# Entry
Amino acid sequence: MIRRRLAAGAGIFSVVVLGFALESGDPARAVAPPADGMYSFNQAGVSGVTWQVTALCDQVNGSRYYKDYSNPDIMADFCALNVVSSTDERISRQDKLQNYSGRARLVSGLWTFKVDIADGLSCPNGGTGASTETFAFDNETMAGTHTSLHGAVCGLQPAMSKQPFSLQLSGPPPSPIQRYPLQCNDIAICY
# Structure
């Protein structure tokens, strides 16, 4: 009789502790594309840069692999972000380097894209070399990391640098965006 009561008490205690552990964790995060629009790009040493961010998604219906079509994580897997970075004027070399475009995909919960810039590195002798710029950001905080890589060029050793950046919504996109351009039926035939 005592063993049963002890076992029952231990079982109830375990359930209560498990309940507290589940409730006290971080809230679940939904990964979804950020709002379509114009964003101010904020990074140390960079000014006057605007990103136009628009999402392009495929409908998830018709796939037997996914059971919950309303799950935002699943829906985000079927999206890509078109990112167009621009400055008001292309006067200086620095302005020119901030004018690029890329397509961001969801990688480990971050929207990530890469841009290869033929003259992205300033060489000590006055020339330029190629660089690879990678941007990865979180859709909730709109903050991320800009990673810049270059190989052994201009007499320099290969190097990598990382800088934090953030995005701030500054306005709507210039024209209406059709996020789901394909129309798909229940058996995943799209037109």
Summary: The longest strand covers residues 110-122.
